[in-house]
Design a protein that fits this description.
heterodimer; A: 2 domains; B: mainly alpha; 14 helices
Chain lengths: 123, 365
């Protein structure tokens, strides 16, 4: 007897529920004996002993977004490569040359970003 | 109803084993690091300190969980739970042996599912860093996301090589093709294996690539504000991630649950050991590798980290895909196979030499 159809994914749901419950239990079980003594010096944001200045929810460096955009382009590429790699045996030389072209175009993109300095971390 | 009950049972067993093995790795890490620094590690609790993980768990449960006053309280307490879930769900698609009983779900897109589910772990980091409303966690979270998505690419692309040899995304078929082929894929894909190990180390946020919890500049990064059990859930999830990367490395490159030399007949007495023990011990081998790196190498700088991911590992993995394509296309054997091996080896050596030189130059500058 086995699960079939869409129901084979049910164990993933069990995993989510079970690990969530365990994590929640680990967080809340100690409440029975752990101390609860919070005052404003203790609950202020940690800044190595200094008085915290302002909020942390502020603007951040845009360099992170450039990496995110590059990541999106290459991650979609990786997904195409996965599909290609599985059927590689069956479609032969044509697909191989096509994929060399595909990788070459993406490498040109990578080298363009490289030459433009998008991959260099500047302060 | 019965299959559902069996599935629940399997999930509970796998999850308990994961937590147990993670505890073993924490013990192993401190013992191995101690030996590398010519000291004993902990010796007090039990024989050679073997009960230390249990003592730690009890102690951490008794510690107060401090929520910062400016934090988003709900998200702050939700982040560890999300991290734990994202660390655990990839194991649903991992087969622990050849028989049906060792598989929880048997899906054809197993590898893509595992990669997708494991990359969800970023959400835990982001939410923890953002909800703390403190500066060090925020910076740690930003660095963490940027690093994790950067090293995701070499991690994913280095698996395309073994995929081409196996011809299936199903984890079970991947090991099967290593059994019928008679050799582990690590011998056919040395570049991919090295890239996978390095990218996996960065992906699990371990030294020398642990920029998001860099205590020299960020206190402890994205979980600076967490204490007690909330903190230890992040640590536990990190160790579960190490097990995951180790298991995927074992299945894709090191023959999964197969014994060493699967086609040599006179070693068949090794089959006495159950398959999941082989898989777990190969995974612990990766854990040892990670601890070894931690004991040996100093932490890299952030620009070096980005440099290494985008300019060394990514082109190297793309090159490996092309080389594997040649290997499959022209059915290399004999002399040509030697040429292929020489080409892969020379490329690896040149690239690694190049990047060590660049690192050295960086450090002088």
């Amino acid at each position: 007897m086995q699960l079939s159809g869409i129901s084979i994914y049910i164990p993933i749901l069990f995993f989510i529920v079970f690990s969530g419950i365990v994590a929640k239990l680990m967080l809340s079980l100690g409440r029975i004996w752990r101390p609860q003594n919070q005052y404003s010096e203790k609950t202020s944001p940690y800044e190595c002993g200094m008085e915290p200045e302002g909020e942390a929810w502020e603007r951040v460096v845009p360099r992170y977004y450039i990496y995110a955009m590059l990541f999106l382009a290459f991650d979609v590429e990786a997904l195409f490569l996965f599909v290609w790699a599985i059927v590689f045996d069956r479609i032969g030389m044509f697909a191989f040359i096509e994929m060399i072209l595909f990788i070459a175009i993406l490498l040109v993109g990578l080298f363009y970003a490289w030459a433009k300095g998008a991959l260099d971390w500047r302060y | 109803m019965i299959p559902v009950l069996i599935a629940i049972f399997k999930v509970i067993v796998v999850f308990s084993v994961l937590i147990g093995v993670a505890a073993v790795i924490t013990y192993m890490e401190r013992k191995v690091l101690g030996r590398m620094q010519v000291r004993h590690g902990h010796m007090r609790v039990g024989w050679h300190g073997i009960l230390q993980p249990i003592a730690d768990a009890i102690k951490l449960m008794g510690k107060e969980i401090i929520v910062p006053e400016k934090a988003d309280r709900k998200l702050f307490l939700l982040a560890p739970v999300i991290t734990m879930i994202c660390a655990a769900i990839p194991f649903a698609a991992i087969p622990w042996g050849a028989e049906q009983i060792y598989r929880i779900i048997d899906i054809n897109i197993g590898l893509i599912y595992i990669l997708a589910a494991s990359s969800l772990g970023v959400f835990g980091v982001v939410i923890a860093g953002w909800a703390s409303n403190s500066k060090y966690p925020l910076m740690g979270a930003l660095r963490g996301v940027s690093q994790t998505i950067s090293y995701e690419l070499p991690l994913v692309l280095s698996l395309v090589g073994p995929l081409m040899l196996a011809g299936s995304l199903n984890m079970w078929k991947m090991v099967n093709s290593q059994q019928t082929g008679g050799t582990w894929f690590v011998f056919l894909q040395p570049i991919a294996f090295i890239c996978f190990l390095l990218a996996g180390t960065a992906e699990t946020q371990r030294l020398p690539f642990d920029m998001l919890e860099d205590e020299g500049s960020l206190v402890t990064g994205f979980y600076t504000e967490y204490s007690g059990m909330a903190f230890s859930i992040f640590a536990l999830a990190e160790y579960i991630n190490i097990i995951l990367i180790g298991v995927v490395a074992a299945i894709a490159f090191m023959g999964g649950w197969l014994r060493p030399f699967p086609s040599v007949a006179f070693l068949s007495f090794l089959d006495v050991v159950p398959p999941f023990i082989w898989l777990l011990s190969k995974s612990l081998l990766f854990a040892f590798f990670v601890i070894w790196l931690r004991g040996t190498l100093p932490r890299v700088r952030y620009d070096q980290l980005m440099y290494f991911g985008w300019k060394v590992l990514l082109p190297l993995t793309l090159l490996n895909i092309l080389l594997t394509g040649f290997y499959k296309m022209f059915h290399l054997s004999g002399g040509m196979l030697l040429v292929y091996y020489a080409a892969t080896l020379i490329t690896t050596v040149i690239c690694l030499a190049f990047c060590t030189k660049r690192f050295y130059k960086f450090q002088q500058a």
